[in-house]
Each structure stands twice: as structure tokens, then as C-alpha cells.
Specification:
The protein is mainly beta. The protein folds into 2 domains: 151 residues, no CATH class; 78 residues, Elongation Factor Tu (Ef-tu), domain 3 (Beta Barrel). Strand 14 and strand 15 form a beta hairpin. The chain is globular, with a radius of gyration of 23 Å. The termini are far apart.
């Protein structure tokens, strides 16, 4: 069942001709919000402005598949394609690189439709057509395709939520872990020896400090590229996967450490009270 305001219901009942536009709200994993309109001009709904491709030269055009409203507990799926080629960007990062680096992972998408008697008059409110979370991302050089699943997908989560395993079930930096990754993030300029597979981040910390962490290039040919750190020895952060373009000395970066999610690692981070592992669980071959 779709919810609509009294003003919108009255408008739909009293007019035969409308101007319509679809509005898209993307809430990223880091809580940043992007609002786009599939229209020739920007549209304001309440206190929010949805930009259009003509208003914002870096905004991609959007094309979505059909959505359905069914009776029962069927998980609805919407395919959404973002077209933009090399000009489309999010936060100054190319759309394809943003998607490839996991920018849409955990993203929440909301699609609304506004009905207007005159262009820009959204006083009657909107009708929510679809809302859900991105389940799959398929980036290419010219487009990014998102598969968005409705909230009913959450009913497929397996229980119990927490499993008995030696390692901590928290993710480093999440709400249960409690560590502030923003406070732990360091920035700097790459030094000598930086290339496509490693970055010289300096020797400000002991060997191994940045291992399992994440490094993001903030300038240079690989701007916006985000990679896990495989190892950190002598100031050199070796990346788990090579960058899409070679970084060079003088390029800037940000990097934060990781955690092995063991009892010893939580002790090192002075976070043992939040450790959610079971280090004394016997291995499977001994539990007979």
C-alpha cells in the first residue's frame, strides 16, 4: 500500500493532466546524501533540492527498471542504471571509480514521484515508489548498474546473528567496536618508491600498524582509488590490489589502520571490553 498526503490524493482526483518527475535519494554508507532528479531542471521538495544533469555537469542520467507492488512477502527488486561516462562524478571522484571502490556498498536508495500542476510546485508532496538497499553493483567505463532490493530482504538474514568463532564478530570501527576511524585516519604526501602497488606513507608508526587498514588516494592519477593495505613495513604500505593508475611521489593520500580481530589485537587497541570473539572454541576436528 502506498501512502500519500491528503493534498496529493485531492490533486490526483481533481486533475487529469499532470507534470511528473522522479526524484532519487542516495544515502551512502558514510551517511552522506546525494539527491538527483530525472528532469531537465532541478526540483525542490520540502527542504531538499534534487539537481538535474543540466544543472550539474557531473551528474549522471538515470534509467530504472519497473517496480511492483504485490500482496505478501515477496522481495521486490529494482535495476537502476547510471549513465555518465568520464564526466560523471560523486564527491569529485569518477562514477566508475567510486563504484569500483565500494562507494555504493550499503547504499540506501529512495525513489519518489512528484505530481505538479505547474512545474516546480511540489506542495502536494510525493509518492514513494521504491525504497531499499543496493545488493549488487556492476560498473563499466560508461555506466554503473545497481541492483536494489526492498527492505523485505532483511527477513532472509540467518539467525543467530552472532556465531561462535575465535575471531571478533565486530567490524573494526563499527558501532559495536567503538573505535573512531576518523580520529585514526592519517593524511600525507607519498614519498619515494610509490608506484601502482605500493605507497610510501612514511615511518610515523611501527611496522604492521596500517596492515589490514584502508588507503585512499586523494590526488594524482589514482585520485579516489581506495585499497586495503596488505602490509606495512619501513614506511611502505603494500596494497592488496594494484591501483587503476600508478601513484607517484608527491601524490596525497589518507590511510587508517586495521585490526586482525583477535583477542591480542583488541588488547593492543585497548578495546578488550568490546571483544566479541570466542578464542577458546576448539577446532572442529577435536569436537567429536
Amino acid at each position: 500500500m502506498k501512502a500519500a498526503s491528503g493534498a496529493l490524493i485531492s490533486l490526483l482526483n481533481s486533475n487529469n493532466v499532470f507534470l511528473m518527475a522522479d526524484l532519487y535519494t542516495f544515502t551512502m554508507r558514510d551517511a552522506s546524501v546525494v539527491r538527483w532528479a530525472k528532469a531537465d531542471l532541478p526540483i525542490t521538495l520540502g527542504a531538499n533540492t534534487f539537481t538535474s544533469p543540466s544543472d550539474n555537469g557531473t551528474q549522471p542520467t538515470l534509467e530504472r527498471g519497473t517496480v511492483r507492488t504485490v500482496k505478501g512477502l515477496e522481495v521486490d527488486v529494482m535495476d537502476l542504471t547510471l549513465y555518465g561516462g568520464s564526466t560523471a562524478q560523486i564527491g569529485g571522484v569518477g562514477l566508475a571509480i567510486f563504484a569500483h571502490n565500494g562507494g555504493f556498498d550499503g547504499c540506501r536508495v529512495k525513489v519518489e514521484r512528484v505530481f505538479m500542476t505547474t512545474w516546480g510546485d511540489t506542495s502536494a508532496g510525493s509518492l514513494v515508489l521504491f525504497e531499499g538497499n543496493v545488493a549488487a553493483v556492476d560498473p563499466t567505463s560508461t555506466q554503473v548498474t545497481l541492483r536494489v532490493k526492498s527492505d523485505l530482504e532483511r527477513l532472509t538474514n540467518k539467525f543467530p546473528r552472532t556465531l561462535f568463532m575465535p575471531g571478533c564478530s565486530n567490524s573494526f570501527g563499527d558501532a559495536n567496536c567503538g573505535k573512531n576511524l576518523v580520529a585514526l585516519t592519517d593524511t600525507g604526501t607519498a614519498g619515494a618508491g610509490t608506484n601502482i602497488s605500493q605507497v610510501n606513507v612514511g615511518t610515523g608508526h611501527a611496522d604492521g600498524y596500517y596492515a589490514l587498514g584502508v588507503l585512499t588516494m586523494t590526488s594524482g592519477a589514482a585520485t579516489g582509488s581506495r585499497r586495503a593495505v596488505k602490509s606495512y613495513v619501513g614506511g611502505i604500505a603494500v596494497l592488496s590490489i594494484p591501483l587503476p593508475a600508478a601513484a607517484a611521489p608527491g601524490d596525497t593520500f589518507s590511510v587508517y589502520p586495521g585490526c586482525a580481530r583477535t583477542k591480542a589485537a583488541c588488547t593492543t587497541w585497548a578495546n578488550l571490553d568490546r571483544f566479541r570473539g570466542c578464542p577458546y572454541v576448539p577446532p572442529p576436528e577435536t569436537t567429536r
